[in-house]
Design goal:
438 residues; UDP-N-acetylmuramoyl-L-alanine:D-glutamate ligase; Protein-Tyrosine Phosphatase, Chain A
Length: 438
């Protein structure tokens, strides 16, 4: 782990990425020990924690945009990134710059050598130090995995948000929805506040039990705020929103009926945080913030012929939501699906959901040991109609070219999905970038 002096930022980040080989280190003891060496930067700013199976990043992006519209100076911590490590750490929508990141790495490296943190623990420490130096009004922090044992849970967040609960990472979080929900509910703080998007079932009941045990007040989507999806166009998703401050048709530029839910949950969280301000001011912040939200790589349309839709859906619930979005955005168009998955994902079930819109599958693989080999995915493609085919093409540029040719010949479109890692490698090939300012 020793790093030589004068190494480039790229070299420092390469060393940091090698921490991933040590795997996860669940629990707060390690990150707390690391942060103690840095003077506890996690105690220098107020924060909101956002956990859940799906929708965390989109909810965080909406909430960040609303609060910035309200005049707050915000920090936003998300993971993983698409193209640049810098995307994970943003202040006022702007990702951390090279100079600041290089300075942070140099300052923290001796502490990393002493404590041997996991990659996520190290990244969390870097982020919290940057936030502490930035004079934030509030940090919006996406929980990495689970909740109870996640490094971000070291924060004494005054508000916790839980988006959805479904089966994912069951080998770590538990085999039942109740067990997964209890792990996610680990972010609920004693005598704190919880904004809950889980609408029904055993998961909702489990989270409410944890909140009651900890004396946390609960604000519920579906009771304290309601939404109803209206339409999806390439310009965005329209939905009716009703809260204490808003009762009107709202539009988010993010695409997908599920984005109406994420935006509504963010509006409810913002309303909770901004309580005490004039109703009209909160309404303006919610309306303007949702309209100005940006979250690349999530149902993002790359214009051209054929059009390409990229989305980071990587579990069954996300794939089902994506299939509904594709049907609404591209009705009647034959769809070539370029898909790749991490080894730990339920790719058979995900492919079944994607099969509801796929006319042709091009199975590929991203870089790294986590990727499922493209050839291994062929057997998992669902039973097809006579005119549906599937092929495996390991190199992403070749897979994209094949899918585009197939779609162009049929007046169709291309869908790229299955992993954030795939989207991250595909965007540059497609001539697209991630903006440095959201």
């Amino acid at each position: 782990m020793t790093l030589t002096q004068g190494v480039s930022l790229r070299g420092r980040l390469d060393e940091l990425y090698r921490f991933e080989r040590s795997g996860m280190r669940p629990g707060l003891v390690g990150v707390e020990r690391l942060l103690e060496l840095g003077g506890r930067p996690d105690r220098a700013f107020p924060a909101v924690l956002i956990a859940g199976t799906n929708g965390k990043g989109s909810t965080a992006a909406h909430l960040d945009s609303i609060l910035r519209t309200a005049g707050l100076r915000t920090g936003l911590f998300t993971s993983p990134h698409l193209l640049r490590f810098h995307e994970r750490i943003r202040v006022d929508g702007r990702e951390i710059d090279d100079g600041t990141l290089e300075s942070l790495l140099a300052r923290w490296w001796p502490r990393f050598e002493q404590e041997h943190p996991s990659f996520f623990e190290a990244t969390t420490a870097l982020c919290f130090d940057h936030f502490a130096a930035s004079g934030l009004d509030l940090a919006i922090v996406e929980v990495g995995l689970g909740g109870r044992l996640d490094s971000t849970n070291i924060l004494e967040a005054g508000l916790s948000v839980i988006t959805t609960i479904s089966s994912d990472h069951t080998e770590i979080l538990g085999r039942t929805l109740r067990r997964i929900a209890i792990e996610k509910a680990g972010i609920v703080k004693r005598n704190g506040k919880l904004v809950l998007g889980v609408s029904r079932g055993v998961a909702r009941s489990a989270i409410l039990e944890v909140a009651a045990e900890r004396g946390s007040s609960v604000v519920l989507l579906g009771r304290d705020a309601r939404y109803r999806s209206r339409d999806i166009t390439r310009e965005g998703t329209g939905f009716w929103l009703e809260t204490k401050s808003v009762s009107d048709l709202i539009r988010t530029p993010l695409l997908g009926f599920h984005q109406a839910r994420n935006a509504a949950l963010a509006a409810l969280a913002a309303e909770t945080l901004l309580a005490g301000r004039p109703r009209e001011a909160i309404e303006r912040a919610i309306r303007g913030g949702i309209a100005g939200a940006s979250w690349p790589g999530r149902a993002q349309v790359i214009a051209g012929e054929p059009p390409v839709l990229v989305d980071a859906a990587h579990n069954v619930e996300g794939a089902a939501a994506l299939a509904r979005t594709v049907k609404a955005l591209l009705p009647g168009r034959p769809i070539a699906v370029v898909a790749a998955f991490s080894r730990d994902k339920a790719h058979e079930k995900i492919l079944v959901e994607l099969g509801r819109v796929a006319g042709h599958f091009v199975l590929t693989q991203f870089s790294g040991e986590r990727a499922m080999p493209a050839s291994s995915l062929l057997a998992a493609v669902p039973s097809a109609r006579d005119d549906r085919h599937a092929e495996s093409i390991p190199r992403i540029p070749d897979a994209l070219e094949r899918a585009k040719a197939w779609a162009l010949a049929r007046g169709g479109a291309v869908l790229v999905t299955g992993s954030l890692f795939l989207v991250g490698e595909a965007l540059p090939v497609l001539g697209s970038d991630v903006p440095r300012t959201l």
